[in-house]
Amino acid sequence: MSKRYVPAPARPAITLDCDELVKPPGSPLKPIAGSDDPRFNNVLLNAVGQSLWVPSGVTDDDRSHRIGAALAAVRGFNPRDEVEGMIAAQAVALHHAAMECARRAMLPEQPSEAADRLRRQAANMARAMVDMVDAIERRRGKGPQIVRVERVVVHDGGQAIVGSIASSAGNRAD
User: Fold this and answer.
1) In degrees rounded to 5, what are phi and psi of residue 172?
2) Is 99 within 8 Å of 123 (Cβ atoms)?
3) Could you tell me the pTM of the whole model?
4) In angstroms, rounded to a whole number, what is the distance separating the alpha carbons of residues 100 and 92?
5) Which residues lie across from 56 on neighbouring strands?
6) Half-sphere exposure of 136 toward its Cβ, with a 13 Å CA cutoff?
7) 9: Cβ–Cβ under 8 A, 6 or more apart, which residues?
8) Could you list the pLDDT tens digit for every one of the 174 residues in the chain?
9) Which has the closest alpha carbon to 53: 84, 98, 2?
């Protein structure tokens, strides 16, 4: 006897109000997460809170302080939009993970091989966190900008200067 194919039940359709996508309602969390969309901000900030390691037995008050500090760190990036909010959230999560690896590496009962591995992981996460900070700065147009000149043609009687130029007062002109 062959088995008869039975299709999976259809999932209910998701309905979206397109006006909310084009012009979402304002959000009081925009200064922290960067979005006008409260749904985005809630999901992003909850993800940051869930990325933290909180030891068992910690009071609800202490847990709230830890999560509040992490959210303050996200706000410290002053994200201007959703992409910057995501980068800031990743940077904060990486920072906390690096610090937790460093803490565990220092436990007296930690075997030396495990401690070495934890220190390497902490260093890798710290570098990744710096990469996130650099990504926000590049996105905002900060950081070094390089101008590459492919070809310079100087006609008879003309002059070309390549390099830094200092005015007579000793101030550097850019």
Assistant:
1) -80, 130
2) no
3) 0.69
4) 12
5) none
6) 24
7) none
8) 567 777 777 776 666 555 555 555 678 889 999 999 988 999 999 999 999 998 889 999 999 999 999 999 999 999 999 999 999 999 999 999 999 999 999 999 999 999 999 999 999 999 999 999 999 999 998 766 677 777 788 888 877 776 666 666 655 555
9) 98
